[in-house]
Amino acid sequence: MAFNSNGKPSKPIAKFESMLKTDDVYFFDAEDFEDIIHHYLNNGKISLAKKAIRIGLQQHPDAIELRLLDVEVLVFENNLDVAERILDDLQLLDSGNEEIYIQRANIYSKKDNHEAAVLLLHQALEMAEESFDIYSLLGMEYLFMDDFQQAKINFMKCVAFDEEDYSSLYNVIYCFEFLEDYEGAIQYLNNFLERNPYCQVAWHQLGKQYFTIGMYPEALTAFDFAVISDDTFIGAYFEKGKVLEKLGKFEEAIESYETTIAIDDPTSHAYLRIGKCHEKLGNEDMAKYYYYKTVHEDPLLDKGWLAITQYYYRHADYEKALYYINKAINIDEENPLYWKKCAKIHAALGNLDEADFSFKQTVDLGNYELETWMLWSRVVRNNQEPEAAVQILKQGLEFFPEATELEYMLAGALLLSDQPAKARKRFIKSIRHDISKLSFFQAEYPEIYHSDWAQNIITDIKKASE
């Protein structure tokens, strides 16, 4: 072991580190070197591990396990050709050593040949007395191959071997989630909890599965059990707060988020959620207070700046809203929702050119919502660019061919761009498709609606249908 029961370095490690500080050379058993090297590797001290390997091989040049640890470091540092040559030599000496196959598999994995890595790991399984680590490696290789079913099976074997292997447990649930088998994940976790009723990690994961499929009371119960199992489990308190929000219990949600702050240092995400809860309760000043605490805690959390933006947008303080949405965009300029909010603010301020640009960014980044096309076309139309509105509405109709609102808007835009024949055709099509939306056209184009052009078409269609 690397440490004794008092948490102090074991004698071989202390002796080795003492040796490094002097010019003396001490002798160690090969097994001692293995413990020393594993200790340094596990603690990320690669340079010390390499020193121990070098000295160990000087004292025990035929020690296969030390040479395999040398290979492990070489693979880690991507010295793959050297590692393979050593493995070739070792295989001649000990062809039944599963670690040789494991390290070859690691090399293939580094080369993105995951199928070959899997074959070698299966060969290692046939030789190994303890297969726990190999199943974990297999699980990772299958993840690289996007074979989530096989990955899940192998990680399940790890959990069956050691039910405190929470890394593998997380990977099992990750596979269930990727396969969208939430019911399967719930059944698996419930079976696990029958054997481990006080496992806070499993209760936490179970709560997240229930939350995903909208079973909020069950999720709340699971998070409560996670907290009972470990009353310092911050993640469970945070997730519990999210469930309480969904249930409309905002004051209880605030208490849950405040507990996370009391247990550990405050987080921007907790402040943000508390602010959202106060907003839902109508406590506008408290909401603003916590939104500002959010960005003070983490100035790079763009969602915090967005929350402040929305606060000022609700209060029609568009200048401040614009200032803060630009903060969010500066952090994440690839977010289409931020650009859309920016466009709405510019439109409210009458900055039509800027609104036009922001809507273009919104669409270029992949936001194709019906509202986006409608708002964008309205902006360019108000900017006296009906031809541009026509092109925007035609684009929108490619995504929403059944959207009568876009058809009505296109009819008006065509008329404004001096294309009366095409406008008439679109207007007739719109009315025949959904005459009840005429009120929408009236609100969008009141002057056109009350004109002889529109009224005559409406009258003709009504007569034809009688």
Global shape: elongated
Number of strands: 0
Query: At CATH's second level, what is the architecture of the domain at 265-367?
Result: Alpha Horseshoe
Question: Considering DSSP H and I runs of 4 or more, what fraction of the residues is helical?
Answer: over 70%
Q: Unreliable segments (pLDDT under 50, ≥5 consecutive)?
A: 1-9
- SS class: mainly alpha
N/C terminus separation:
93 Å
Largest sheet, in brief, is: none
Report the CATH C-level class of the domain at 265-367: Mainly Alpha
Task: Determine Rg (CA atoms, Å).
Answer: 33 Å
CATH fold label of the domain at 265-367: Serine Threonine Protein Phosphatase 5, Tetratricopeptide repeat
User: Taking all residues together, what is the mean pLDDT?
Assistant: 90
SSE run: HHHHHHHHHHHHHHHHHHHHHHHHHHHH
Query: How much strand content do the residues show?
Result: under 5%
Overview of this protein structure:
InterPro entries: TPR-like_helical_dom_sf, TPR_rpt. TPR repeats lie at residues 98-131, 132-165, 234-267, 302-335. Keywords: TPR repeat. It comes from Zeaxanthinibacter enoshimensis. By secondary structure, the protein is mainly α. Among the domains are: 265-367, Serine Threonine Protein Phosphatase 5, Tetratricopeptide repeat (Alpha Horseshoe), CATH 1.25.40.10; 376-465, Tetratricopeptide repeat domain (Serine Threonine Protein Phosphatase 5, Tetratricopeptide repeat, Alpha Horseshoe). It has helices at 11-20, 30-42, 46-59, 64-76, 80-93, 98-110, 114-127, 132-144, 148-161, 166-178, 182-195, 200-212, 216-229, 234-246, 250-263, 268-280, 284-297, 302-314, 318-331, 336-349, 352-364, 370-382, 386-399, 404-416, 420-433, 438-444, 446-449, 452-465. α4 (64-76) runs parallel beside α6 and α9 (148-161) runs antiparallel to α10 (166-178). The protein is elongated and about 105 Å long. The relative contact order is 0.03. Mean pLDDT is 90; it is low at 1-9.
